[in-house]
Specification:
The chain is of the alpha+beta class and 130 residues long. The chain has 5 helices and 7 strands; from the N terminus they run ααββααββαβββ. The chain has 2 domains: 72 residues, Alpha-Beta Plaits (2-Layer Sandwich); 35 residues. Helix content is 35%, strand content 25%. It has a 4-stranded antiparallel sheet, covered by helices on one side. The chain has a 3-stranded antiparallel sheet with strand order 5-6-7, with no helix packed on it. It starts with a helix and ends with a strand.
Length: 130
């Protein structure tokens, strides 16, 4: 029965992979910091650009806008600081605390948000992103 159950698991759950978040690629232009690969980072994390944007604005205490496929911060920022905050976002809102996989989704239930893992089925309360 165990072998039959393993056979029926989705391929996404069976494969063992590590979440590789791309490093921020950008530049400082005057008083602004431009991140050119913002949408790529959102795709890897499997989260909406709005939720990551809101998190970064709150954590970095700076205004930001999305212009086409790049993110523009309203002040000069070090790329290592932005990378640290993106890593922190992934630990809080992407990676499952039980199994360590990134196959998660954010669900809303009874006015609360949960991080639900597709791989192991665990469900953990998270602070609201909205």
């Amino acid at each position: 029965m165990l072998e039959a159950g393993i056979k029926n698991l989705p391929k996404k759950v069976q494969e063992i992979r590590r979440l590789e978040i791309p490093k921020v690629k950008g530049m400082v232009e005057g008083n602004k910091t431009i991140v050119n690969n913002f949408l790529q980072i959102c795709d890897v994390l499997n989260r909406s650009k709005e939720s990551l944007l809101k998190y970064l604005q709150r954590e970095l205490a700076t205004p930001a806008i999305i212009d086409e496929n790049r993110l523009i911060f309203g002040r000069k920022l070090n790329s290592s600081l932005i990378n640290d905050k993106i890593g922190q976002f992934s630990r809080e809102f992407v990676i499952c605390q039980e199994c360590g996989k990134s196959d998660t989704e954010i669900i809303e239930q009874d006015k609360a948000q949960f991080l639900k893992c597709q791989a192991c089925g665990s469900k953990k309360t998270i602070k609201a992103l909205k």
